[in-house]
Write a structure and sequence with these properties.
The complex is a heterodimer of chains A (141) and B (481). Chain A is of the alpha+beta class and 141 residues long. Chain A is built from seven helices and four strands, in the order H-H-H-H-E-H-H-E-E-E-H. Chain A has a four-stranded mixed sheet with strand order 2-1-3-4, with helices on one face. In chain A, helix 1 packs antiparallel against helix 2 (20-31), helix 3 (36-46) crosses helix 4 and helix 6 runs parallel beside helix 7. The two termini of chain A are 22 Å apart. Chain B is α/β, with parallel strands linked by helices and 481 residues long. Chain B folds into four domains: 3-83, Glutaredoxin, CATH 3.40.30.10; 101-302, 3-Layer(aba) Sandwich (Rossmann fold), CATH 3.40.50; 304-394, Ubiquitin-like (UB roll) (Roll), CATH 3.10.20; 399-479, de novo design (two linked rop proteins) (Up-down Bundle). Chain B is 42% helix and 16% strand. Chain B contains 21 helices and 16 strands. In chain B, the strands form four sheets. A five-stranded mixed sheet of chain B has the order 2-1-3-4-5, covered by helices on one side. Chain B has a five-stranded mixed sheet with strand order 13-12-16-14-15. In chain B, helix 11 (210-227) links the parallel strand 7 (200-205) and strand 8 (231-236). The chains are: A alpha+beta (141), B alpha/beta (481).
């Protein structure tokens, strides 16, 4: 972790009200996780205890304690995508992901009329069948 | 030069709109990126001189330009899916470039805010009250009463918080509005700010909506001068469904765990940072922009059914042939929405169940398709319209598996503050597994549902029994009964 990058993030939010989530998002994006050292620095900057910061980090699905450099594919498995057959694709998706790709479940990408849907980074994909989903996972970088 | 209009809404992008746009540009056309009409099964939908082609692919581009494409659907605005709709909140859908201030002003933008700022704050509240507008997030609480409470609450600082944490499966109207017409939301927030005396607003958007976040941030910057002295900041959620509950959302905005707060105090009196706060859904605030334009309140109040006034942007989703955005006055029957406008299932198989109102909404069988879309009528049928999502399932759906999923979802998303939701949800999953294996007690399931319903702090635990009970009530055979 580059401490000067972290200091720059903290400086950018100095004095802002309720700045913890915006800070955590930036830290997660910059370092791929919110590490225990980052938690300590954030706690010091916001005059919080480390427990308070850790409580927030561990509450939200978007923040992780350790980095995972693998490509990340989020597959929607909420009701509307279930209605359009996503569950039948899961085994093939898991096989395609293997250990190389981090495949996680997301509850809803707001593409509910055109599922099954998936997200890779800030790109979204809809109307996935097994072949398209397997290709998407194979291409994920 | 031929002007080709293609949406840059996330759903159009997810269906390949960028590649189609690039193919038209390569063919020498001028490509304009617009909001989406909401005809999702036709995305990417291409518009040339008002006529539509969809779903378009790059390979289809030469045929579309030559006028020989089989994807032609004729004049888009006259399409049967749109012809039966009454679009007020989504009046600009498909018709504007989302971040064009010029397009916004040319389509009646800012009329509501300009007029509201010429009125006394209490007159603005009175007009919202007269329109009959109710909160579109799910609870259906009268917006005017909420605004009046905040306006009358003592406090040096007040806030407008837009709840854009649209986590319900089957809903996407907030996303479409933020991506397709972001200035309307900001206009509505500024109207609310004038009505209650707030200086600062926040839009809390879920992180699963990266396109909406980018559009809103750009819109806030572009419209800052128009909104001043009111200021708006876009804040991003972090993957917690429960933050769509207003008090959890406020905690999250304050930088805390997204845990639900006990009420009272109401957020209207002690909300964000302890100050009086309006927390309204995207569609509620956007509707205010229409209502405050001249004659808007009367028009709104004249539409609807019973105590549900105005229009509801219904979202047709799941296994449905014609999925998309369907803004209609309250009162249409569920059957009209699913069978006629929605065109039945996408798979061509019979409709088995429809879940209305998201993961906490009841499952309804075709036998209840007579229900009018109306807050009270749905409540009387032990169902809810929620945020207006309609998810269709065909006859391959396993209702016991869906009931189990309701508990599983609740367990995954519970904030953990209250015991019935935190522990009851997991016990529910285990119990349904036992029931489906032929053991377990249905009496115990009902006991558990009752504990969740009456013992939970918020709607997540309190309403999880609704999909479970409705599945059991209407499809007992799926549970081996």
């Amino acid at each position: 972790m580059n401490t000067s990058d972290l200091a720059a993030i903290l400086a950018r939010h100095a004095g802002a009200e309720g700045a913890l989530l915006p800070i955590l998002h930036e830290v997660q994006a910059a370092f791929g996780c919110v590490s225990s050292e980052a938690e300590r620095a954030i706690a010091a900057a916001l005059n919080l205890s480390r427990a308070e910061v850790h409580g927030v980090v561990s509450f939200y699905h978007d923040f992780t304690a350790a980095p995972d450099p693998r490509p990340h594919v989020q597959l929607c498995r909420a009701e509307a995508c279930q209605a359009r057959g996503v569950e039948a694709l899961v085994a093939a998706a898991e096989a395609a992901a293997g250990e190389r790709v981090r495949l996680t479940t997301v509850y809803c990408l707001g593409l509910c009329s055109a599922g099954p849907a998936a997200r890779v980074g800030d790109e979204v994909h809809a109307r996935l069948d097994e072949a398209a989903l397997v290709r998407l996972i194979g291409d994920a970088r | 030069m031929t002007v080709v209009r293609i949406s840059d809404d996330a759903l159009a992008l997810a269906c390949g709109a960028d590649a189609v746009a690039a193919a038209f540009a390569a063919a020498g056309c001028t490509v304009e990126r617009t909001s989406s009409w909401g005809l999702h099964w036709l995305e990417p939908l291409v518009e040339i001189d008002g006529r539509g082609f969809g779903p378009a692919t790059p390979a289809e581009v030469p045929a579309i330009l030559a006028g020989t494409s089989a994807t032609a659907i004729g004049e888009i605005a006259a399409h049967p899916f749109l012809a039966g709709q009454t679009r007020l909140t989504f009046a600009r859908a498909g018709r504007i470039r989302p971040l064009s201030l010029e397009d916004y002003a040319a389509t009646g933008g800012w009329r509501g805010l300009d007029r509201a700022r010429g009125l006394a704050p209490e007159q603005v509240v009175a007009e919202v009250m007269a329109s009959g507008l109710r909160g579109r997030g799910g609870a259906g609480f009268p917006a005017g009463i909420k605004w009046q409470t905040v306006a009358g609450a003592p406090g040096a600082r007040k806030f407008i918080v837009c709840n854009a944490d649209e986590g319900d499966s089957g809903t996407f109207a907030d996303r479409m509005l933020m991506e397709g017409d972001p200035f309307q939301l900001l206009e509505g927030m500024a109207i609310a700010a004038h009505a209650v005396g707030a200086g600062q607003g926040y839009v809390y958007v879920r992180s699963e909506y990266p396109h909406a976040i980018a559009k809103l941030r750009a819109a806030v910057e572009l419209a800052a001068g128009r909104l001043a002295p009111f200021t708006v900041e876009v804040r991003v959620g972090a993957g917690a469904y429960v933050c769509g509950e207003e008090t959890a959302l406020l905690n999250s905005l304050e930088g805390r765990r997204g845990e639900v707060r006990a009420k009272p105090p109401l957020p209207a009196l002690a909300g964000l940072f302890g100050c009086p706060t309006v927390v309204n859904n995207v569609l509620t605030l956007a509707a205010a922009a229409h209502i405050l334009a001249a004659g808007g309140a009367e028009q709104y109040a004249a539409l609807g059914h019973g105590r549900s006034r105005g229009t509801m942007p219904v979202q047709l989703a799941g296994n449905i042939a014609h999925g998309g955005l369907c803004e209609v006055p309250f009162g249409l029957s569920l059957g009209e929405l699913v069978m006629e406008i929605g065109g039945r299932t996408a798979s061509g198989r019979p409709v088995k169940a429809v879940q209305v109102g998201g993961p906490l909404g009841a499952y309804l069988p075709p036998g209840r398709f007579d229900l009018p879309f109306d807050y009270e009528a749905f409540a009387a049928a032990q169902a809810l319209i929620g945020h207006g999502g309609v998810v269709v399932f065909d006859d391959t759906a396993d209702m016991a598996a869906l009931a189990r999923f309701a508990f599983q979802f609740c367990a995954a998303e519970s904030c953990g503050k209250c015991t019935p939701c935190r522990i009851g949800s997991t016990r529910g999953v285990e119990l349904l597994d036992r029931l489906c294996a032929g053991s377990g007690s249905f009496e115990l399931l009902e006991d558990l549902c009752e504990t969740l319903e009456y013992g939970s702090l918020c709607a997540l635990g309190g309403l999880t029994p609704w999909p479970v009970r409705s599945a059991l009530r209407h499809w007992p055979a799926d549970f081996g009964r």
